[in-house]
Amino acid sequence: MEERNIKREPLGDALHICVNAHHRFGTDALLLAEFAQVRKSDIACDLGTGCGIIPLILHRFCPPQKCWAVDIQPEAISLLTKTLSENDLPEITALQADLCNLPNDLPFGRLTLVTCNPPYQANGAGKKNEDVAHAIARHEVCCSIRDVCTAAARLLRFGGRLCLCSRPERLCDVISAMRASGIEPKRLQFVAKNPQSEPWLFLIEGKKGAKPFLRTAPVRYTQSGGEMSDAMTRLYRGDVPCGTSEE
């Protein structure tokens, strides 16, 4: 990977992330990182981490004790390794691995938080991007939502949390996959551009071994008066208190 193809995006005053044309990030990753309500006591893992934006944002909000960042693509892990080196973040470990076959050196059954921004389209649905990296990120090429939930269930301790996001049309698939893996959906939030728009994203938290009871948070709006909302502006700046989420 050539240095000239790498761009460094600032994440606040003293933090940046390395991205390129194949591995970037969007608003959904920032919203998920906030929704996860990370705590300093958390032992976390981000599955399908890409360039590592979610672990970086979790660190900016409230550094967990330890965070593994897992992705199957060597280029993504190479970018993240460069980011971690340049920002001196030893508590985050980049790991190239298939979440369907996670290595034994991960702390199975001990994590308190797993995050994932999974591929939104089922394999075979919609037109697949010819770019391999983009296809893996957007379609269930290398893993399905059931694979994500199965991996999370193996990693989480009893009561541990799985937080992920997806498109509203996949909500039934996600809830079904969570429950099939012993992870009970507990908190749900839809995201829309404004009150006149249909939601374009949902955020959901499930807990391993929990009893059924789903709380629906108020809809999160990303715009106000045609401009980015104040809450979104604060989110981009990283002004979110540790262990809390603006709803």
State the main characteristics.
single chain, 247 residues, alpha/beta, two-stranded antiparallel sheet, 28% helix, globular
| Chain-averaged pLDDT | 88
**Strands, count:** 13
For the sheet with most strands, the description reads: 9 strands, mixed
Number of helices: 7
What share of residues is helical? 25-40%
Oligomer: single chain
Rg from C-alpha positions? 17 Å
Question: Tell me, what's the shape?
Answer: globular
Overall structural class, as computed from helix and strand content, comes to alpha/beta
Summarize, please.
This protein has 247 residues and is of the alpha/beta class. 28% of the residues lie in helices and 27% in strands. The strands form three sheets. Strands 3, 4, 5, 6, 7, 8, 9, 10 and 11 form a nine-stranded mixed beta sheet that branches. It has a two-stranded antiparallel ribbon with strand order 1-2.
What features would you describe in this structure?
The relative contact order is 0.14. It contains 7 helices and 13 strands. Helix 1 (27-35) crosses helix 2 and helix 5 runs parallel beside helix 6. The protein starts with 6 loop residues before the first strand and ends in a 10-residue tail after the last helix. It has helices at 27-35, 53-61, 74-87, 132-138, 145-155, 171-180, 230-237; strands at 7-10, 16-19, 43-47, 66-71, 92-96, 111-116, 156-166, 183-192, 201-208, 215-216, 220-221, 223-224, 227-228. The chain is globular and about 45 Å long. By secondary structure, it is of the alpha/beta class.
